Structure formats: C-alpha cells, structure tokens
## 1
Amino acid sequence: AASGPHLPVGCAEPYSSMAAAGAAASLVQYVVLRGDLVRAPLSWPLGAVVAQGCHAALAAVHAHRQHPDTRAYLELGGAMRTVVLEAPDEAALTELAETLKQHSIDHEVWTEQPDNMTTCLALRPYPKEQVHQHLKKLKLLK
C-alpha cells in the first residue's frame, strides 16, 4: 500500500494508492444544464448550450482545484467521468443549487453574461455515492 498524506473524511484516496478499476468508477463530475435552452422559445444552438456546460465544469474544477478529489479526478486524464443531466428550466436549476448548498455540496452555478441568465451548474468531482441522492430525480441530457 502506498503511504501518503492523511485525507479528510469524505475524500477519495489518491488513485495511485487504489485499484484503477474501482477508482475510475468512484469519482464523477456532474454537470446540470437547463433543458429548456434548446427548446422554443429560447432555441439556443447546440454549441452555445455545450459551452455553458463547459464553463460551469471548468469553474467548479477551478474553484475547488486544491480539493484532493478534484486533483485525483484531473490525474485521470482521458478516464475522467462526467455525467450531464438536465434540469427542466431555470426554477428547477435554482432549486437544485439551493438543495446542494443546504447539504454542503461544492458546486458552481454558471450565469451567462450579459444576459444575466442562469444556464447550468456543475459539482466539483465527487465520489458518486456522496452526491447521487441529490441528483437521482434528474434525467440524462438528451
């Protein structure tokens, strides 16, 4: 077993000290986009919606870049796991953000400027079992 710094409770072990298969399945970054952005009347182009998800994911990773789970996730390179979910509209996204805040789940809300429109949120990378309960009602973005 590799020896390293003691991690706070709730943090994943560094991947260098875990079996690769179990480790890769453990950490995930959840991104939640508003589904109504692509539908009328908003009808955003697909690329613009994808950009919102990218902005939110990067903001969450940057804001929590010193967290051991974020660092371990980034070390995965091409094996990083990201799940993109859909909130039906801005109200649902705002409600989710409040729930995450109440449960001390680290996340970043992306607000597109200059429109000042909340479009997306992303959690920092987490072990799936720590956050899945707050996201299980949402569907995969299609």
## 2
Amino acid sequence: EGKGKKRNPLHDFRKTGELMLIKVNKTLEVKTKLLNTTEQCAKRCSRNKGLSFTCKAFAYDRVTKRCHWLSFNSLTNGVRKKQDHAFDLYEKKDYVRNCIIGKGADYKGTISVTKSGIQCQAWNSMIPHEH
C-alpha cells in the first residue's frame, strides 16, 4: 500500500480561490515564473528551489499559467488581500495554522498567547514549566 504513489505537494497548502496578496511593504519578496501546474508551483515553494527567501505562499495565475512565489502570507503585516478572478492563493499550512499538531516542532504560526490571554512560555525556556 502506498508504493509507487507520489505525495501531492499541494497537501501542505491551504487554497483560497480568486484571491491575490498585494505587498504594501516593499521589502517583502516575490518571484514569478511560467509553470504549467499548481503542483509544480507547490513543489518549488516547499523546497524553496531557486528562491532567495523562504516561500510562505504562492499565487497561481490560471490565465497566464504564471506562478508567483511569496515571502509572505495573508497574516503578514504590510500585505493586503485583493479579489482577483485569475488567481488562486495557496498558503503553507504551517504558517497559517493556529494550532499545534503533535509536539509543535514544526509550528510556525503567530499565536503566542493561551485561550485565556496568558503569554506563552518561550520554547527555549524551562521557566515556569519544564518541557
């Protein structure tokens, strides 16, 4: 079971149809390239292949078949959302997830307070609790 089957690289992304992210902060990076499929875009984003930044999301232009790799996502400061019928936005789940799965080793989200509003203990701290 599972032999010979390749894992779909889109599995690591959350898709939002007809949405593009516009960078207001000019220091945020974007790289584009013509690619035939969203799977090819996702694979490059996951591997950061040919990118000078950590890819957190990509937008795929279905009309021009152009992939836009983004160093940011919808939660990043200095970014605004724009509805655009030509684009589908794919954000890495690790960066938009608001919960910890397993031991949290891969958590890259932005939540740093408990449900009751208490500041979370830093991962590198053993105070007030040991891990």
## 3
Amino acid sequence: MERPSLEFNLPDTHEEGKLYVVDSLNNLNKLNVCPAESQHSLDEEENSGGTGESMAGSNTKNQSLFFVTFILTLIVSLALVSFVIFLIFQTRNELDQISSRLLSEKKNIEELKKLNNIILKHLNQSRIKE
C-alpha cells in the first residue's frame, strides 16, 4: 500500500515543478519583452492583486490625454483653415485690384491709340497741303 502513495506524491511534485518552470519562463519573457518602465507597472499590477485599479487610472489618464490632444488638434486645424480662408480673401482682393488696374490701363491705351490716329491724320493732311 505504501507503493501507490509514493506514486501519487511523485506526479504532484512533477506538476509543481512544471508550474515553477512555466512561471519562471513567464517572468523571463516579461523581462526580455517588456522595457524597464513597463515591467514596473506589471509588477505593481501583480502586487495589487490584479484588481484593475491601476488599469482604470491608466485608462482614465489615456482618455483625458486623448481628449486634450483631440481638442488641440481641432484648435490647430481651425486656425489653419481660418488662415487659408483669410489668404483666399486677400488673394481675391488683390486680383480684383489688379484686374481693375488692367481695365483702366486698357482704356488708357485705347485713348492713346485714338490720339495717335488723330495725330497721324493731322500730319497726313498737313503734308498733303504742303
């Protein structure tokens, strides 16, 4: 009867050894994969008993950081759009001024052409009289 009890104890010890090896491998994996700062947060989470308190605080902090970043992005975008609209209006005003100047210059050129034609006619008439 003692023999079966020994057989029972050996598998239990073997299972405990397997659990110890798996736990050691997990710890080693955490050290290799996670940076030092992340490891501290993982250790704190394990020490807190896995209640999720640190995760809830972290989640709230991440949400507020996201919200602030989102608001700042919206403000910067609004400022950029306003600046572009301002530039469009300024460009439109400048184009209107340039087109009005061109029209006035065109009128001046046409008047000068008329005057030139009148002078040429007058000169031609004076030559004919001579």
